Amino acid sequence: MSVLGAGYAVLGAAIAAALAGCGSAVGVSLVGQTAAGVVTEDPEKFGKMLILQALPGTQGIYGFLAFFIVLGHVQRLGVDAVTPDMGKAAIFACLPIALAGLVSAIYQGKAAVSGVSLVSKRPESQGHAIIFAAMVETYAILALLTTILLLQAVFPAA
Q: Which CATH class name applies to 4-154?
């Protein structure tokens, strides 16, 4: 009995959560820095800024979700039942959300920073600003779906 396969699977899960989380941290930080300047000048815009700042945080949630999906499969099968090949495949299955989550969160943060600038001058354009930033989200969602489908192929059904 070996736990090597489960170790590989958990490594993939950790990579998904860590990289997507790092991207979200960068994206949220970029928006927060710009939004703080706007709120300094006009505290009434805090709520509008907060919504834009929250957008790049979703990729971290997606990576965290992938982490829990992998752990759920490992727990359901049992640590000893996860073969090394399954574990290695789980690492690759987690890469879409890990990498797309990292990159899209940073770029969504940059799009949201532009949205902050737009809303600072034209508060009525918040919907436009949100849509501009949310377009980047599409690719993080596709990456999460790819990871989920790949994980279903890696781990046998009950």
A: mainly alpha
Cα separation, 25 vs 28, in Å, equals 5
How far is the C-alpha of 75 from the C-alpha of 69, rounded, in Å?
A: 10
Residue 28 reports pLDDT greater than 90 = yes
pLDDT tens digit sequence for 29-44 = 999 999 999 999 999 9
pLDDT at 1: 53
Backbone angles phi, psi at 75, to 5 degrees: -65, -40
Q: What does the alpha-carbon distance between residue 151 and residue 118 come to, in Å, rounded to a whole number? A: 40
Query: Does the predicted model carry a pTM greater than 0.90?
Result: yes
Contact 146, 135 (CB under 8 A): no
Domains of the chain by residue range: 4-154
| CA dihedral sign, ordered 11, 94, 20, 49 | negative
**What's CA 64's distance to the chain center, in Å?**
8
- Residue 158 structure tokens: 């009950």
